[in-house]
Every structure is written in C-alpha cells, then in structure tokens.
Write a structure and sequence with these properties.
The protein has helices at 18-32, 46-54, 102-113, 117-121, 141-146, 187-199, 217-222; strands at residues 5-6, 39-44, 58-59, 63-70, 82-85, 89-91, 97-99, 148-152, 158-167, 170-178, 205-211, 226-237. The longest helix has 15 residues, at 18-32. It has seven helices and twelve strands. It is of the alpha+beta class.
C-alpha cells in the first residue's frame, strides 16, 4: 500500500475474512490518499474482482493477462539493412536514471502506439506520455544488454525497440513497439528471441503483460509464451473533490 494505491492483497489460511480486512484498508487509504485523484488497485485476479467491487472499487474496461516463457537459446538472424544496439542509461544529475536516447525511444513508441487500444489502456495520448521515465530504475546490466534498439541503417531512424525490466524480481518486457511502416517483417519476434537468448542462464523466464484483443498476442503465442489467468487491468475508487 501507498497513498492512492493498493495491490497484491492476500491472507494466510485458515483466516478467510478478506472483505473485512479490505474494508479497513479502504478506510485507511481514504484517510491517507489525495482524494483529488482516484485510488487504484492493479492486476486484479478473477477471484478478487467481486471482493473489490463490494468494497466500492469500480472495474477498468480493459482485461489483460500475464504471459511467460522459459528463456532459451535462439538463432537470431537480422536483415543486413538493420542495425541492432542495446540501450544505455545514465544518471540525470538529480539522483535518477534516464535512457541516453530517451527522445528517440519516445518517438518510436509514439509512432508505434499512437491512437491504438494499447495507448488508450495506458492513457498515453501525447508524445510526452511515451518518454521513458520509470523503467531505468528497475533494470540492470543484464536486462539492458537483452533489450533491443533496431535502426534502419539507411535513414538512421529508430524503427523498433524492446525494453526489458524487473517485475517482482522476474525479467519482464516493459514495452515493445515497431513503427507501422516496418511491421510484418518479424522484427518483434526477433527482438523477443534476442532477449530470450541473452537472458538464458540469467533468468528462468521472461514475462510480458498483454491486453485481451491485442494483435500482438498471436506473436507471443507463436513464440511459446503461455497465457496466465485473465485479470482486470485495474479497479479504482473515483476521485472526490
């Protein structure tokens, strides 16, 4: 818990009066939180949806699921017209980290997701919303090396990227995008294979989070990612003026 958010609620059997606990936590959250903003809970599992609904949380309209696949060795062969790099991070001088090429990454992701359902789910509508801001603080050298930037050699443009980070100590895909003009060439699959390959013997699995109905889900399934249970992306108590 922290102001305006609660997640990963569980109780240890044989205690099972989770609703009473949640009501008390909700009371504390309302006292603790900024009520000009909603109070949110994330990645709500099916067996807890009604629990949070009874406590006054409203469901988000999007349903998502984690998918995972064991890391493995792959032969990855890139088109000679493409240049492959790993992203780098630096200290921004104020104690936080940033991607050295964060503007290029933001432009690539903006072009990849602008106007899509995925952007709507993430509430990202402007270029500024796609500037990487959090994930450099949840990564390490191994995950940076396994992340991928794909450039068109001729134009020098960043046309695809796959950024990996930590999620509950697991390796996870933070974001993956290919600009429209370069789709259908297997670039997303190659970026994921590269990540799975470079993380072999370092992390047992690679995770990613996908929205129901996302066209990319078939790419993940074809690559051997196994879907977990469907979740509601978030539930929330509306803001109060």
């Amino acid at each position: 818990m922290s102001p305006n958010r609660i997640y990963h609620l569980f109780v240890i059997p044989p205690f099972n009066d989770t609703f009473v606990v949640l009501k008390l936590l909700k009371k504390l959250l309302i006292y603790w939180s900024d009520r000009t903003k909603p109070i949110k809970t994330f990645e709500v599992l099916p067996d807890q949806v009604q629990l949070f609904a009874r406590a006054g949380f409203w469901p988000d309209e999007f349903r998502c699921r984690w998918m995972h696949r064991p890391t493995d060795y792959f032969e990855v062969e890139w088109n000679k017209e493409l240049r492959i790099e790993s992203p780098q991070i630096e200290d921004n001088g104020m104690g936080a980290k940033r991607f050295i090429l964060e503007e290029q990454i933001a432009e690539c992701n903006y072009a990849s997701f602008d106007g899509s359902l995925e952007a709507t789910r993430r509430k990202k509508f402007a270029y500024e919303d796609f500037i990487p801001s959090e994930e450099p603080n949840y990564t390490n050298e191994e995950l940076l090396t396994a992340s991928t930037l794909v450039y068109d050699k001729k134009s020098g443009q960043l046309i695809a990227n796959c950024l990996l980070g930590l999620q509950d100590d697991y390796a996870a895909v933070y974001s993956i995008g290919v600009i429209p003009a370069y789709r259908g060439k297997g670039i997303a699959t190659l970026m994921l294979k590269r990540g799975l390959n470079l993380l072999k013997d370092k992390y047992p699995i690679l995770r990613l989070y996908v929205m129901e109905g996302n066209d990319a889900e078939s790419v993940y399934l074809n690559l051997g990612f196994v879907p977990g249970v469907q979740e509601i992306q978030s539930m929330y108590i509306p803001m109060h003026d």
